[in-house]
Specification:
Elements: H1 3-6, H2 13-50, H3 54-83, H4 91-124, H5 126-129, H6 135-152, H7 179-210, H8 218-253, H9 260-277, H10 280-302, H11 306-337, H12 343-347
Helix pairs in contact: 2-3, 2-9, 2-10, 3-4, 3-6, 3-10, 4-6, 4-7, 7-8, 8-9, 8-10
């Protein structure tokens, strides 16, 4: 069944009018904040890369990659708002915007997944991971993520098929909602990454809490726990509702749900969840904040304090003073030893 057949006896005009208002209220601040915050995030983590600190290079590369995906989503929002209000838009341009939108969404999901896995391995197997967290390998992983999401976006090109009166991000063909297209997207694009993120995050927090009584850097590890917890919360809030709505719409489009009121509620839930999932590009700033805070705490923990610097300077001064005294004493001793004897002159 096509979307047109679905709406013959069940009107979605009220949902459409409501969503036009909601999108304006959500997408405009999302665009402004997302553009500003992600540019600042890229600049901030780039500064850590420029300083060539090995401890922070891997995480910085991942975070820059995540910010680039978020920035890509932000830049697609104005076109999404414009095209979703125009029927029969230029199909190649509509397909390009849809492609960029879903690439940014699933690129963010895969990047967060690899960040969680990398952090868990660094906490659980620090010696082993130190040999495989080189900047070149992390950059290679990010390139693989880009290839995967670009290849995975190929079904987007057939979203509208030969539908004449289509609207961008709407009126998708029955083939789009077929099981062979939907389940790979749902399983490999969300369920599998969410399982990995949930496992790695819970295990990482468990390990860090278990070390509480056996570490001197509890403040730093507490910041790490907050980073992991916030990242998990942002992921669940951003992507769980939208993929749940995808599943419900799959049931509608395949005839499992036929009641008009239920279909209206599901399409409203789908539009709202997609709308608010875009705000993920702003919510990720909390992850950036805690990661940068963790970096700075680690730097301060390994940087000598003011009292330590004064004490070190005092010890250095004392050492130099002792050395100069010893050199002066040796000089006087040498001068005494090297005084020539007066005996021969007396005898002469």
């Amino acid at each position: 069944m096509s979307q047109q057949n679905h709406s013959e006896n069940c009107s979605f005009n009220d949902v459409k009018q409501l969503m036009e208002t909601v999108q304006l209220a959500v997408h405009i601040p999302t665009f402004i904040l997302g553009l500003l915050l992600n540019v600042l995030a890229i600049r901030g983590f780039s500064s850590f890369l420029k300083k060539r600190w090995p401890c922070y290079t891997a995480t910085s590369i991942y975070m820059i990659n995540l910010a680039v995906f978020d920035l890509l989503l932000v830049l697609s929002l104005p076109f999404k708002m414009f095209l979703s209000r125009r029927q029969g838009s230029f199909l190649p341009f509509c397909t390009l915007v849809e492609c960029l939108y879903f690439i940014s969404m699933y690129g963010s999901i895969f990047t967060i997944c690899f960040i969680s896995l990398d952090r868990f391995l660094a906490i659980r197997y620090p010696i082993l991971v130190s040999h495989i967290r080189s900047p070149r390998k992390i950059f290679g992983i990010c390139c693989i993520i880009w290839v995967l999401v670009w290849v995975g976006s190929t079904p987007v090109y057939s979203f509208h098929g030969k539908v004449q009166n289509y609207t961008c991000f709407n009126n998708m063909t029955d083939g789009t909602w077929s099981a062979k297209v939907f389940f790979p997207f749902e399983v490999f694009g969300f369920l599998l990454p969410m399982s990995i993120i949930g496992f790695c995050s819970s295990r990482s927090i468990h390990i860090l809490v278990a070390r509480r009584d056996h570490t001197r850097d509890w403040v730093q590890q507490k910041a790490c726990i907050w980073t992991i917890a916030v990242s998990l919360a942002v992921f669940v809030v951003s992507f769980l509702p939208v993929h749940l709505s995808f599943f419900l719409q799959f049931l509608v489009r395949n005839g499992f749900i036929v009641e008009c009121r239920a279909k209206q509620n599901i399409i409203l839930f789908l539009q709202l969840s997609m709308c608010f999932s875009n705000f993920n590009c702003c919510l990720d700033v909390f992850c950036y904040y805690f990661v940068i805070k963790e970096f700075r705490m680690d730097i301060m923990a390994h940087r000598p304090s003011r009292s330590q610097l004064v004490h070190q300077d005092t010890l250095t001064t004392m050492a130099k003073g002792k050395k100069s005294c010893l050199e002066e004493g040796n000089l006087n001793l040498n001068s005494i030893v090297n005084i020539p004897s007066q005996g021969p002159d007396v005898v002469g």
